[in-house]
Input
Amino acid sequence: MCGIVGYIGYRQAFPIVINGLKRLEYRGYDSAGICIVNGDPFLAKQKGKVSDLEAFIGDRPLPGTIGIGHTRWATHGEPNDINAHPHESMNGKFILIHNGIIENYSLLRSKLEKRGYIFKSETDTEVLVNLIEYIYLKGNVTPEIAVRLALTKVVGAYGIVVINRDEPDTLIAARKGSPLVIGVGEGEYFIASDATPIVEFTKSVIFLNDNDVAVLQRNQMVLKTIYNQALEPNIQQLDIDIEAIEKGGYEHFMLKEIYEQPRSIHDTYRGRISSDPFDIHLGGLYSVLPNLTEAKRIILIGCGTSWHAALVGEYLIEDLARIPVEVEYASEFRYRNPIINKDDVVIAISQSGETADTLAAIRLAKEAGALVLGICNVVGSSIPRETHAGVYTHAGPEIGVASTKAFTAQVTVLIMMAILLGRRRGTLTEERYRELIREVTLVPDKIEKILQSEELVKVISERFKDSRNFLYLGRGYYFPVALEGALKLKEISYIHAEGYPAAEMKHGPIALIDDTMPVVVIAIKDSSYEKIVSNVQEVKARKGVIIAVVTEGDTTIKEMADYTIEIPEAGEIVGALLTVIPLQLLAYHIAVMRGCNVDQPRNLAKSVTVE
Ligand code: G6P
Output
C-alpha cells in the first residue's frame, strides 16, 4: 500500500508530484506529504487526502525541479501529520518516502536509540531513514553506499525514494517487495509505484526488480543491486493512454469502470477467441499448455474480489474441463503448510499483480515445484514477472478501490481457459465448444443492455439506502456473485452484507430475516431455478424484502419479489459476468446516496502490498 512519486529533471516538480499522488491515491489516502528541492529541500506533510495537503500548501510557490511525494495507508502508527511521509533523519541529512513494511524495525530502532537517535514518529520508515544516516555519518561513505548498506540490514518490503542534503541533485530509488517504476525521459526521470503518474510524460519505463537500486541524476541513471552488482536497464514501452486513467466525465472512477465493462471484456477476449473459425488462443499459456492440460489438480489463489473470481473459475474448470480445482485465500494457503505436488498447477489471480499474500503464495508454490501461472491486470507487475507463464486480463487501469471491471475480466479469462482445457481434454463436444465461444462473444452487448437498468437500480437504492444489513443469495455460478455483490456493498457503503449459497440460508441466516432485511437473490433460469424459487418463497414467508436478478421474461419470481432486475437470457458459463453488473450498480448508488467516498472507501486500499 502507499503510493510514491519522484521527479528529477528540468520541469517544475511540484505539479508532477501532486498530480502523480492523486493518481496513486487508490493505494492509500490517510495522509500525504511532499519534499521539493530548490537548493534546500522543502518538506510539507499533512493528515488526510492529497487535496488536504494541497490546501495546506495553498498558494505558496514551491519552485524546484526535484521532488518526491507520498500518499499513505498506515501500517505502523496512526494516520497523523507526524507519521506522514516523507520522513527526515535526525540530523537532517536524508529525506525518504517508503511503501512497504520494515519488519525488524523495532530491533533496529532500539539499536539506533542506544546510539543516541531520537524518534519523532511511530513509523518503521523513520527507522530506515535514520539507519541510512547513521551508516552515512559513522561509516563516512557516500549516500548511495549508505542506502545500499542499510537495505542489506532490513527485513521486510520496501519501495523507497531518498533525497540527501549533501547531494541534492540526486535521487536514490530502491525496491524489494513493493513495486517501483522508473519513467525515462530526455534529461529527466520519473519514479512511481505504478506507471499512471508517468504515462503522460513518457511511455519508456523500467520496472525495478527486488534488490535493485537506481541512482538518478538529470542526465544519467546508474542501476545496480543493493550488493553493488551493475545492472543493464531493461527499458520497456508502455501501452496505456492517459484517457484510460482519467474519469472521462463520470462522477466516480467506479461508475466509469462499471460502464467500461462491455469494452474491457471485449479487450480481454479480443484476438484470443474467434467464432470464424472457432478457436481459442491464449498466447501467454502456449509454452505450458501440455502441463496445464494434464494437471492432476489446479489450485486457484487470490484475495478479495480476485478470490471470488477464483471461485467462479473452480466451477468453470471442473464443469467444462473436469480437472479437480481448489480455491484458496492466498493468506491462508501460504501459512497453513499446504500439500503442493509437482503435477499441480497453481494459478494466482490478481488485479494489481502486487498483493503481498498472493506473491508469497506463488513463491511457496514455486519452491514446491508446481507450475505457477498468473492472471493479472497490471502489465509488468510482480506476479506476472514471478510466475512461469500467464494471461493478462487487459481490462485497463482500474482506479476505483472497489474492483469491478477487473473482476469481469478475470472471469472472462477463466471462461476462456476452461473452454480451452475442455477442448484439449475432450470433455466438450464440438457443438458445445462452439456454443460456448458464441456465448462469450455475445457478452458485451448483453452488458450494454443490463446497464440500461441503472434508473431502476437507483429507485431500489433509494428505498434501501438506510438498511443496516443485506443478505445476498445465489446458487452454483451465482454463489460467488452473491459474495461479490455483498463485498461491493460493504466496502463502499459500510452496510453490513453477507453472501451465502442460497440453500445454506436455512442453516443460519434465515434467522435474521424480517421485514427490514433486504435479500438480493440471483434467480436466473438455469438448472437450479426451481430450487432458487423455493428459497425466494422461504424468504417471503418470513416477510423478507426481495430484490431479485432474474432472466428476461421471468414471471414466477416477479410475482414474489419486491423488485426485479432483468438480465438477457444467456448460458450459465457467462452468467457471473452478467448478474454481477446490477449488483455493482446497486452498491455504487447506495454508497453515493449515503454520501460515502465511493472511490476511496475508508480503511481500504486498492493494492495491498502488506501481509
Ligand atoms: C484489495 C482491493 C480489492 C482486491 C484485493 C486483491 O482488498 O481493495 O479490490 O480484490 O485487494 O487485490 P488484487 O490486486 O490481488 O486483485
